[in-house]
Design brief:
Helix 9 packs antiparallel against helix 15. The chain is of the alpha+beta class. The protein contains 17 helices and 22 strands. A hairpin with a 3-residue loop joins strand 20 and strand 21.
Length: 527
């Protein structure tokens, strides 16, 4: 028996040796393959911390925050936590298989509820998120940024200047380019850590936004835009659009910055520019009598009438502005040559890009017929056959507020505005007086009793639909203002898109917003 046991033992040993060797070879193979997998280390830039964006008073409009992360042991725990967050109205920015990125200000009670219900590692703050404290109030202006940098608004326009550093991740990489373990992060400072200061004023932005929103609601309009600019410095103090979007959650809907991106035919807002040019060129004098009888004029075979079938009779150039006479302006406009008409509009900045950087900076359009017929000149004279945005109109009206000097709008505190003389002091003063008469005894008389003396011009233009023509009962109703009239400091322009066709004139729809803002600015000592 002992011999049999011995032989059996030998047999087991002989079986074990190949099995053990096979195990050894497999271990060596695994180590070899693992070593082969880690071919090299690699790195990538996965975050770019950005400067704060501040208003003129140092209030934060955009800043970087660290967002917390919950890491769970399994999918089930993660789903439990997600349900708790949703039930307690906490926003989830992103969730992956075992991880949830959270809103930065998750309540302690919410965290406690999650940790009681499931297993997760303690909260850690490990990724940057761009945060916009005022949300939709500044949305179209400030824009937003993502992993690829600035994507809209100031965030995009000033992207290169806003990036202050990069977070570089270094990790092991397989031969197939897969990320493995051992990730390390380093912050690379690119220098220039100062914040970016804008000329915007948060108080004015809030007030203008709310008043514009109310005006749009009250007039059952499609939308609108408005701005306030310092006539002395060109600084934009407020720039609002509605509808808007929340840059903290921008991918649901992104609305344009209508102040800059929306081009429209400004209508009667151009009439002061036409009268100013005619005075400058000597085509009229301040006391020239213009006969508008019988309330219409025929030009190049086309009949043009006063709004509402009115007949203003014999009027002077100032009254063509204050009464917003189509016939009076048409008779002035046909005195221009084709080149003079284009040059005059160009001198006031129409058909020319703003010098302020923006994403879609455009010049707008002016009818490009080599020869302008009388009907073309008349159309340009009262604001048709050309397109502009609100900032271009503000730039043009700065001529009347600054004794004939045009100033470029700006939104960055660090730059200065260009200035150029366009009109004589005398002619600019005459136009400003005419704009004041528009309020005292013209199309914006609902503002005549305001404590702050306002000068301004109403504009109501029919909307042109590409491929269709002018749409019936679709209007853009605007009011361009300068105040205080006696010592101009501010230019404010309001434009309402497609108000109720039963009440759509600029004096009724847009002008009241200016009145409310002037009261607010007086109360807060801006005036």
């Amino acid at each position: 028996m002992s011999k049999l046991r011995f032989l059996f033992l030998i047999f087991l040993i002989l079986l074990f040796i190949p099995a053990y060797r096979y195990y050894q070879l497999n271990q060596e193979r695994d180590l070899f393959l693992a070593a082969a997998e880690i071919r090299n280390t690699a790195s990538e830039i996965n975050m770019q911390p950005r400067k704060k964006i501040l208003d003129r008073n140092g209030i934060e409009l955009a800043t970087d925050i660290l967002r917390p992360t919950l890491l769970f042991k399994n999918e089930n725990d993660k789903n439990i936590a997600k349900d708790i967050l949703i039930s307690e109205s906490q926003e989830i920015f992103l969730n992956t298989k075992r991880r949830i990125y959270l809103e930065t200000k998750v309540s302690k009670s919410t965290l406690s509820n999650i940790q009681k219900a499931c297993s997760c590692v303690p909260i850690r703050e490990d990724t940057f998120k761009r945060y916009y404290p005022f949300g939709s109030i500044f949305g179209p202006v400030i824009g937003f940024s993502g992993t690829d940098g600035g994507l809209e608004g100031i965030e995009k326009v000033m992207n290169d200047d806003l990036v202050i550093g990069e977070i570089k991740s270094t990790f092991n990489q397989s031969g197939r380019g897969e990320k493995l373990y051992g990730q390390l992060e380093d912050f690379i400072n690119l220098g220039n850590n100062e914040s970016l200061s804008l000329t915007l004023d948060t108080n004015l932005q809030f007030k203008l936004f709310n008043e514009l929103k109310d005006a749009i609601s009250n007039s059952k309009a499609k939308g609108g835009s408005a701005l306030i600019m310092s006539s002395e410095s060109g600084e934009i103090l407020a720039m609002v659009s509605y509808p808007t979007f929340n840059p903290n959650n921008p991918y649901r809907v992104i609305e344009r910055n209508k102040v800059i991106d929306d081009f429209f035919e400004p209508g009667s807002l151009i009439k002061p520019v036409t009268v100013a040019g005619a005075l400058k060129l000597g085509h009229i004098k301040k006391d020239t009598v213009i006969n508008t009888n019988p309330g219409f004029v025929t030009l190049s075979g086309y009949k043009r009438s006063e709004a509402g079938g009115k007949n203003f009779g014999r009027i002077n150039p100032s009254e063509t502005i204050s009464k917003s006479s189509q016939v009076g302006i048409a008779k002035i406009a046909i005195k221009f040559s084709s080149d003079e008409m284009r040059e005059n509009l160009g001198q006031f900045g129409f058909g020319k890009e703003l010098r302020m950087q923006w994403i879609n900076n455009s010049a707008g359009k002016i009818i490009d017929n080599p020869k302008l017929y009388d009907i073309d000149k008349a159309s340009l004279g009262y604001g048709y056959s050309l397109t502009s945005n609100l900032l271009q109109i503000a730039r043009a009206y700065s001529v009347f507020a600054n004794e004939g000097i045009m100033i470029e709008p700006r939104i960055l505190s660090s730059i200065k505005s260009d200035r150029v003389r366009v009109l004589s002091k005398s002619a600019a003063s005459f136009i400003l007086d005419s704009l004041r008469m528009t309020v005292l005894d013209g199309t914006a008389s609902n503002l005549k009793d305001e404590a702050i003396a306002i000068a301004g011009k109403t504009g109501t233009s029919e909307k042109y639909i590409e491929g269709v023509g002018y749409a019936s009962e679709k209007y853009v109703s605007s009011f361009a203002s300068i105040f205080p009239y006696n010592e101009p400091k501010f230019i404010m322009i309001v434009s309402i898109d497609e108000p109720d066709p039963n009440k759509y004139f600029g004096g009724d729809v847009s002008a009241p917003v200016v009145g409310k803002l002037s009261k607010f600015m007086r109360r807060l000592k801006y005036l």
